[in-house]
Every structure is written in structure tokens, then in C-alpha cells.
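Hello K.,

You asked for the raw outputs rather than the summary table, so here they are, unedited. I folded two proteins back to back in the same session to keep the settings identical. This is the first:
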Amino acid sequence: MAEKGSEENGVLLPDAPPPGTGDLTLADFCTQFDLNMKQVVRELKKQGLTASEAQTLKQIATDNNSNPIDLYERIKGIVQNR
């Protein structure tokens, strides 16, 4: 049975981040889930967050006074609202 998640244009993100997701760089995360990294960075910037492809999701969250789960939810919202 397939894991339930959020799907948009063939992109499937699990409802909750898989273990170890916070240790992935943004580039690796976007590659793993077939996301447009430039779009994700641009949309995060619109939300007032700074992010670079070389940072891990944990680093991005910490640098923006957030947590990895909140960041994951923001990214999930970005790809759902394309």
C-alpha cells in the first residue's frame, strides 16, 4: 500500500518527513522528491526565510528560528500550491 502524502503534478511528499530528512541538503531533498529547487528557494524567500542549496534542512530551520518539521511543512505547502 502506498504511503499517503501530498501530491502535485506527480510530486509526492509524505505527510510527515521521513527519518533523516533534516540531515539532507536542500539540493539533495529537492532531488529526492523531484522538486524545483529554485522555486522552493524563491518561495521560501517570499516567506521571509533564507536558504541555500548547500544547507541542510536543519541548518535552514535553525538559521530562520524555526524547526525542520515546520520547514518541511512550508516546502510541502509550496509544492502543493504551484
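The second followed immediately with the same parameters:
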Amino acid sequence: VVGTNTPKAEPIVAFPNPAQSTIRLKGIGDGTVISIVNVVGQEVFNGTVQGDLDVSGYENGVYFIQIKGSKKEVEKVGKFVVFR
């Protein structure tokens, strides 16, 4: 839509990226509920984050981090790669 001034949310940044065993997320607060989905849309994590997130059990590939709002729409998104 032309002419809207909707502010863009700060993106979620995962580091290190690519990751091997853990990632830290920037752009969200501790205790925020997130979901992580793989490239085929399967949810591999849904829960709260406190500090580092263990991704050691994830297969190599690209993953998307999502924060959903009260109406279940995606408000923030980020991505990271697991590569060993």
C-alpha cells in the first residue's frame, strides 16, 4: 500500500551464524515466546528463550525465528544456519 508509515520492527539477529551448538538472539528479550521453523515449514521449537538457545540437535540447514503477536500474525522474523 502506498503512503503508509508503518514502522518496521527491529529484526531478530542470531549469532554466531552459522551456528554449531548454541545461538544467542538479539532483538528480543529474555522470556519472549518464539517459534523456530525449518525451510519446509516444520516447527522445531516453540517456547521461551533465556540466554543461549541449544541448536545442537538440529540438522544442518536454514531455520527461521518468528515472534507472533496476539492475533497470531508474525511480528518479527530472523534466520540462522546450522552447519557442522
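The radius of gyration is 13 Å.

Happy to rerun anything if the numbers look odd on your end.

Regards,
P.
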